[in-house]
Amino acid sequence: MRDPVLDSATVISELKNFPGQSVTLRGWLYSKRSGGKIVFMLLRDGTGICQCIVEASVDDAFALARELPQESSLEVTGEIRADDRAPGGYEMSVTGLKVIHKAEEYPITRKAHGIDFLMNHRHLWFRSKRPTAILRIRHKAINACRNYLDNKGFTLIDTPILTQGAGEDAQTLFPVDYFGEQAYLAQTGQLHVETACMALRKVYCFGPTFRAEKSKTRRHLTEFWMLEPEIAFAELDEVIELAEGLTCHVVQTVLAEHEEDLAVLGRDIEPLRKIEKPFPRITYQEAMDNLRSEKTKLWLEKELEREKGVLQGKVEELAALEKKLETVKKQFQKDKLNMQIHEVREAIHELEQDLASRPEHIKLAQSFEWGKDLGGSDETIISKQYDKPLFVTDYPRQVKAFYMKVSKDDPRLVRNVDMFAPEGYGEVIGGSQREDDIDVLMESIKSKDLDPGDYSWYLDLRRYGSVPHGGFGLGIERMLAWICGIKHVRETIPFPRLMGKMYG
Ligand code: 4AD
Ligand code: MG
User: Which ligand sits closest to the CA of 168?
Assistant: First the structure.
């Protein structure tokens, strides 16, 4: 949307209001194609892309346009015409062209680039269609989360990033030297937000969290953003209900407002249309029985065969594209084919890797023992069997955090919940009812080798008017990876931090 002060020129998203009129656009040269007497420039301005046509008769502009490198910044004036074939539906006949800055040779071209190259140019890759679509969806998803909670009367509490102790697993703390004392980057805002919950009843925090996870998986970042609501006088059922409603709202908002962006990402939106309440619920015990069952084994073996067929299909597609490449003459056709070939090759590579680890995953599932945490591959196997998010509750106490409420029915278990996204995405939400009995909590802290001294203020909540309460953490990047249909979380955060790697 144009702001009269911030956007003194017309913006591309508003061109529908200007057919037949002359307007001036400001933006960057996204790409260019030259014929003998004509230059087709695609201009992007952050709100859209417009085809700007410069004819040889417009002397100065034509000479300039022919030699402009990609990503040069420009001010372009011309008449707007509706044209269904043009991206965005409108194009411009250029009458004037001013160069704001002539770019150097731009490293990201129309040629196919590998993901490593693109990630290493993250600061520039932002300008391409795929990252922009993801950034817009991320913004909307975060907004949807906040709106949902705000409308339910939650208060946002900003929790600290420099903290004194472990909020989760002490093995994944990032230490910081704090004036000679040891401090840590926050793994979660939960413990602090629990204190505010006793003051304001329904609260949430939203901020960056840090885990020194030594996992190089497609689900792990060392810095990620988490939304953590916390509700007083709530038990596990209310926590689950909130997670369910929030997830539906986020998915439905993105679907309603970002269908075009999802199309840019090649996301099949049919599975997302099925995301409505209620979501299925199973216990850890049921998840374990499922993993070990003969039925699951047979299904997994059948899936493996089916996917081998998909791989074979991709290999044939690649051969056909390579053959076609030998026959085309025009450079832009070659570029387009090369891009497709590159994409199919990447898909083949991913499938091969996936399939290679599959027998091991099947073995792991079949030999799953009570008391183990569900691993990434276990989550994938279970969540692939559902077409809605799945709640898995009541895990063994030994694999979960110290603050979780011990089950009354079975003291080996805690009242926790993980929500697995469908299509194999696995855990995107983790939460629980909290232990509100000070003695049980103290014992849990000690049994996890944590120092009760670090938690004196947290324990106070159980000394002064302790109430049942609970909440959860929603990992924004994992939620986005699922909604956008992206394999790896690294593309869902502007500047990803992974084990041993920072981009930008
Ligand atoms: O399950 P987790 O560790 O739960 C907590 O941190 C609780 N304190 C939350 C709470 O109850 N208030 O993390 C919650 C979510 C996960 O489900 C996942 O989506 C995300 O945070 N997450 C990660 N995302 C990316 N990279 C990582 N290394 C992540 N670790 C957790
Ligand atoms: Mg978890």
Answer: 1
pLDDT digits (tens, 9 = 90+) for 78-90: 999 999 888 889 9
pLDDT digits over 361-384, tens only?
Answer: 999 999 999 999 999 999 999 999
**Paired strand residues for 417:** 393, 431
- For ligand 1, atom 7: residue with the closest CA: 473
User: How many Å lie between the centroid of ligand 1 and the Cα of residue 362?
Assistant: 25
What contacts 503, CB < 8 A, 6 or more positions away?
119, 120, 122, 490, 495, 496, 497
Nearest to 484 by CA among 130, 127, 129: 130
- What span, in angstroms and rounded, lies between the C-alpha atoms of 379 and 482? 14
Q: 262-319 pLDDT, tens per residue? A: 999 999 999 999 999 999 999 999 999 999 999 999 999 999 999 999 999 999 999 9
Q: pLDDT digits over 7-22, tens only?
A: 777 999 999 999 999 9
Which ligand 1 atom minimizes the distance to the CA of 187?
6
Distance between CA atoms of 309 and 355, rounded to whole angstroms? 11
CA 75 to mean position of chain CA atoms = 34
